[in-house]
Design a protein that fits this description.
This protein is about 25% helix and about 25% strand. Strands 1-4 form a two-stranded antiparallel sheet. The protein has a two-stranded antiparallel sheet with strand order 2-3. Strands 5-6 form a two-stranded antiparallel ribbon.
C-alpha cells in the first residue's frame, strides 16, 4: 500500500527495475499508526478511522522480488513520520491464463 501521490512513481520504479511488469491497483481502506483523521463539517466533528490507500500488486519472478521490494520502498517513501504504507512479498502459485488455459510459472 502506498499514498496516492506515489502510485505512478512506484510503478515507474518497478518498471525501471524489471524492464516491464504488469500491475493491479486496488483502492483499499485501512489505517496504520496514523489511526485515521478527524474532519469538521458544519460545526460537527467526525473521525474517519480508515483512510483510502492504493494497494499495488505485482506478480514477478522470485529472483526479482528483493530488488523490486527495495525499489518500491524507496519510491514510496515520502519523508513523513507515518503513513507511507507497507511492502511485502508472498509466493504465488497455480496461475492459469484465462484465455488459453496455460499454466504460468
Amino acid at each position: 500500500m502506498v499514498v496516492r501521490e506515489r502510485v505512478e512513481t512506484v510503478i515507474d520504479a518497478v518498471e525501471e527495475e524489471t524492464g516491464h511488469v504488469g500491475v493491479t491497483v486496488v483502492e483499499a481502506i485501512g489505517h496504520g499508526s496514523e489511526r485515521g483523521v478527524t474532519h469538521e463539517y458544519r460545526g460537527r466533528t467526525f473521525e474517519s478511522r480508515f483512510l483510502p490507500k492504493p494497494l499495488l500488486a505485482f506478480v514477478l519472478d522470485d529472483a526479482l522480488a528483493g530488488r523490486v521490494a527495495a525499489a518500491i520502498a524507496d519510491a514510496a517513501r515520502t519523508g513523513h513520520s507515518s503513513g507511507d504504507g507497507l511492502c511485502w512479498t508472498s509466493p504465488v502459485s497455480n496461475v492459469v491464463h484465462h484465455r488459453t488455459g496455460e499454466r504460468l510459472g
